[in-house]
Amino acid sequence: SAMLAGCRQVLPAALGRALRGRAARPCRRAVSTSWCPVGAAFDVKQQPQPRGSAAGRETGLFGVPELSCPEGFQEAQDKALQESEQLVQKACSTPPGPETVMIFDQLSDSLCRVADLADFVKIAHPDFAFREAAEEACRNIGTMVEKLNTDVELCQSLRRLLADEIVNSLDPETRRVAELFMFDFEISGIHLDEEKRKKAVNLNVRILDLCNEFLTGTHLPNKIDKHILPEHIRYNFTAEGNYLQVAGLHADCPNDLVREAAYKIFLYPNAEQLSCLEELLASRNSLAQLVGYDTFAHRALQGTMAKNPETVRQFLEKLSEQLSKRTQKDFEMMTKTKMKLNPQNSKLMPWDHPYYSGVLRAERYNIDPGLYCPFFSLGACMEGLNSLFSQLLGISLYAEQTQRGEVWSEDVRKLAVVHETEGLLGYIYCDFFQRPDKPHQDCHFTVRGGRLKENGEYQLPVVVLMLSLPHSTRSAPTLLSPGMMENLFHEMGHAMHSMLGRTRYQHVTGTRCPTDFAEVPSILMEYFANDYRVVNQFARHYKTGQPLPKNMVSRLCESKKVCAAADMQLQVFYAALDQIYHGKHPLEKSTTEILKETQEKVYGLPYIPNTAWQLRFSHLVGYGAKYYSYLMSRAVASMVWKQCFAQDPFDRAMGERYRREMLAHGGGKEPILMVQGMLQKSPSVEDFVDALVSDLDQDFETFITDS
């Protein structure tokens, strides 16, 4: 939706240039005296603020005074709606010029500031009343956005600017932002006659409802009469009277029969979910065609790095070709392992892949997470990130004491991100620990976008990083497994993009950029997390202080290449399926027949009759026609790593180039131009494929010197 196109990006599983012109430079902000080193802050319990102390003053969530109670959402929302009414009038009466874009961005900002914050609160706040109030605010702002998206007069003010020769005198970022706003109007059908425009609005509303319904359905457990299952495996599932509940695939269970049963029961087709998916795909297609696109995929890929479905298809086909021999080898290894453990039944099935690839990893490279955790205390990992950012980018992270009412749980930590010459860049709230009812996904939320305000000051970005780490105990601090450590680095990559994507307009701040570029900064951080030179700076045993032995890091890296081709082939299959579903309609076959055909052709393990995996494919909602993004972002991250950081992961000149070329622009520059600026060449589809495939063969030792 136009005004919110930038906001609401939750990135799953994401550096800044001082703005153009003197006025845009943020004044150096005073260094706060309440900052303390970041590592220590995570290894000690935060003390509650006594009433009456300076830091004990009452405030609301994120320091927004109204949000000290759930009712405050109504107040914040009313204020935003009132402000937006005034801005709409201002936009319509302002002569065409750069100010038009500024007003549109203010309008977007006033709505996003409430919607983004509410989007986070509605899923993460422990208090139901807060969650409910936030949900209501989201709905009301959403309604306002629908109204604005079809406001012909508002759209005219932007159209006048884009049609005027003055458009040629706009700087590239302003022009791009104007075009992005226009694009958002057009995909809402603003250029259609009134009847078709109404139809577009209704389709948009229906699609939103179908998305919510489908998403809920992807997680619902399936029930089965317990007598159908052999008695000795029933204890693996939750009993409910005469029924057993199957709520997932039990992919890590060592018993083949349990995995088989879970697969067949959990993926058994549900008629309502099936018709919901069919209607969702058909509605998306109708909307795309109504506003002038061939398919939904054509509409979704506009402005991305890939640009169109043809490029995505080419990328996936070429990648699949390159992977096929390697994937076959992986499947053969898994089959051999299965034969050893289950000689009667050794054919490799789709429920075997995740389990046996894990068995192979563990067999070959003793990588029990228990051996690694003691070296990765949360405090040590945070100090490691701090040290890396300081060497690469001149940035330090400090823990800042929060005020009463500012955070939603007492274990949330607030970090100030400070540049050595530019001062305070923004804030990261770290919601890192498990608690009841907290969603399990690791993600990054933009709560407030950065932008240059009318008075010349810079509105500092605010983000939340959400993880699900274990709490510290009496005898040990919070200890991370290697996977958790890599996730922390990944999410911190998003946060740095947000802090350093220091754009003039909040509509393109930080991670508000095309999906296939948004994951590049976060995946690049995984390469740093897997490099011994980086890990060796911070991984210390929490009791003895002994560093993590180098061979343990090498073993971990090598283990990740075990069955990596088959894992990637599975991702190619999901991406290909997503493209077909959002391609030409009406679909030639049912979604299940398409699944069967694509699975056998692209993935290679047999389709199991009476299963419908697509009904559990939750990414179809947030990543419709864009599931390929993760693979393409990984390809770019791999190229950037090899070309710019593999020689020296602490190279400051490269860090600055990375900030200047890739992070500084947020979504304010075409993604492929940012990649070209960094790599100093324009990568082809073949380059993307080669980068991914060479990672499978890469000997990690090549980058590890004995210094």
UniProtKB/TrEMBL annotation:
**Catalysed reaction, written as an equation:** Release of an N-terminal octapeptide as second stage of processing of some proteins imported into the mitochondrion
Specify whether Zinc is a keyword of the entry.
yes
UniProt entry keywords in alphabetical sequence: Acetylation, Calcium, Cobalt, Hydrolase, Iron, Magnesium, Manganese, Metal-binding, Metalloprotease, Mitochondrion, Protease, Transit peptide, Zinc
Enzyme class, broadest EC rank: hydrolase
Answer whether the UniProt record assigns the keyword Zinc to this protein.
yes
What does this protein need as cofactor? Zn(2+)
Co-factor note (free text): Binds 1 zinc ion.
What GO terms fall under cellular component here? mitochondrial matrix
The Gene Ontology biological process terms listed for this entry are: peptide metabolic process; protein processing involved in protein targeting to mitochondrion
Per the UniProt record, which EC number(s) apply here?
A: 3.4.24.59
InterPro entries to which the protein is assigned, alphabetical: M3A_MIP (IPR033851), MetalloPept_cat_dom_sf (IPR024079), Neurolysin/TOP_dom2 (IPR024077), Pept_M3A_M3B (IPR045090), Pept_M3A_M3B_dom (IPR001567)
- What top-level branch of life does the organism fall under? Eukaryota
The entry lists its GO molecular-function terms as:
metal ion binding; metalloendopeptidase activity
User: Locate the Peptidase M3A/M3B catalytic domain: which residues?
Assistant: 250-692
**Function summary:** Cleaves proteins, imported into the mitochondrion, to their mature size.
Q: How does it assemble?
A: Monomer.
Q: Which family does it belong to?
A: Belongs to the peptidase M3 family.
Q: What is this protein called?
A: Mitochondrial intermediate peptidase
Q: Which organism is it from?
A: Ramphastos sulfuratus
Q: What is the lineage of its organism?
A: Eukaryota, Metazoa, Chordata, Craniata, Vertebrata
**Which gene is annotated as encoding this protein in its UniProt record?**
Mipep
